[in-house]
Amino acid sequence: MGAAEPARPVGWATGESAPDGEWLVRAVPGAAALKPYRCPGCEQVIPPGSAHVVAWPADAAPGAGPSERRHWHRSCWRARANRRPR
Q1: Do residues 69 and 38 lie in contact, with contact meaning Cβ atoms separated by under 8 Å?
Q2: Distance between CA atoms of residues 69 and 40, nearest Å
Q3: Which of 29, 65, 71, 69 is nearest to 46 (CA)?
Q4: Per-residue pLDDT averaged across 20-40, rounded?
Q5: Three-state SS for 23?
Q6: Are 40 and 61 in contact (CB under 8 A)?
Q7: Nearest 10 degrees: CA dihedral of 64, 65, 71, 74?
Q8: Which among 11, 24, 43, 55 would be 20 to 30 A from 61, CA to CA?
Q9: First to last CA, the chain
Q10: Residue 60 DSSP label
Q11: How far is the C-alpha of 53 from the C-alpha of 75, rounded, in Å?
Q12: DSSP 3-state helix, strand, coil percentages of the chain (rounded to 5)?
C-alpha cells in the first residue's frame, strides 16, 4: 500500500485519497455534535458533544444524503488502514 496523498480542500469538506478510495471528510466540532453516532472503526458510540469526523465516498451522488455518510472518531478514521477485518 502506498502512502495517502495530501488532503485537498473541497468546499466545506476535505478530499482525501487513500488505499481504501477517495473520500470527502468534514470535521465536526464538539459544539456541533448534537446526536450520538456509532463509529464504524471501533463500533463504539460517539457521544453528543464529542468532536469527530464525517466521511463519505467522493464518488457518491450529489445530495446522496445520510445513507452515504459515516461518523468516525478522529483516531479511528486515521487508523482505518491498520484495522483487521471484522
Answers
A1: no
A2: 11
A3: 71
A4: 95
A5: strand
A6: no
A7: 60
A8: 43
A9: 20
A10: S
A11: 10
A12: 15, 35, 50
Residue type, 19: P
Which residue matches cell numbers 478522529? 74
Question: Would you say the pTM of this structure is higher than 0.90?
Answer: no
In the numeric block, which cell numbers belong to residue 50?
464529542
pLDDT tens for 66-82 read 788 999 999 999 999 88
Residue for cell digits 477517495?
22
Please enumerate in sequence order all residues whose Cβ is within 8 A of that of 23, keeping only pairs 6 or more positions apart, or say none: 15, 16, 17, 55, 56, 57, 58
Residue located via cell numbers 471528510: 25
Joined together, the cell numbers standing for residue 47 give 457521544
